[in-house]
Request: fold
Amino acid sequence: MKIGILGGTGRMGTGLARGYAQAGHEVILGSRDADKAKDAAAQIGGSVRGGTLAEAAQAGEIIVLSVPFREAANTVRALQNALTGKIIVDITNPFGAVPPDSSGMAENMKAAPHARWVAAYKTNFWKTLDAPMLPSGVRRDILVCGDDEDAKRVVMQLIEAPGFRAVDCGGLSNARTLDLMVPLMIELDRRYGGNALSSWKFMEGGM
Ligand SMILES: NC(=O)c1ccc[n+]([C@@H]2O[C@H](COP(=O)([O-])OP(=O)(O)OC[C@H]3O[C@@H](n4cnc5c(N)ncnc54)[C@H](OP(=O)(O)O)[C@@H]3O)[C@@H](O)[C@H]2O)c1
Reply:
């Protein structure tokens, strides 16, 4: 598939691009500065290329939203024609910058209501994107939620292609919970000396 990454030159964007490219996808890194994106793409190599935000939004069949949360709504609003009907993987973390009864994704969705929104990767540090599997053989989990079940299934396949386990966390109503797990993840990582290599793990019941 073709994956457009808005904010593709950043830590998360380049990390995701490497994994998607290794899994056989075509990736377009979108930046406010096309030359910066081309340089970032050249460093990754393979099936990754760089361009403007508009080029990434246009070319991508799936769009990853990887700009700072405070810039997310304006970024997608400006591109909403190109995003209509496409899956947007919202990875942005609001860190409390949303009303108490809302979530980062619920707020961002208002800027492109005709896209198909799925929250993912919010609870994963950028440093872990190159290591879907621990030396012990345990797969890292990527928590996913959203109301569009078909879109969520597509995103879960995208997540699993580089080797992560996608965990279906239900609908949009759980997006706030994922948002709140992020500051706790940072706190736990600091307390237990994780050096931003920690991850949330869901242990399934049953044998
Ligand atoms: N860091 C983590 O471990 C982590 C984990 C999970 C989720 N997240 C979330 O993932 C997103 C990206 O995080 P990151 O750590 O990759 O950040 P980052 O390294 O700072 O990259 C963010 C990218 O956003 C673009 N950007 C910055 N300001 C912008 C603006 N005003 N308008 C449009 N684009 C802008 C920049 O690209 P250009 O300068 O090329 O335009 C930059 O490369 C954030 O929302 C963050 O909350 C981060």
Remarks:
- The radius of gyration is 16 Å.
- The chain has a mean pLDDT of 97.
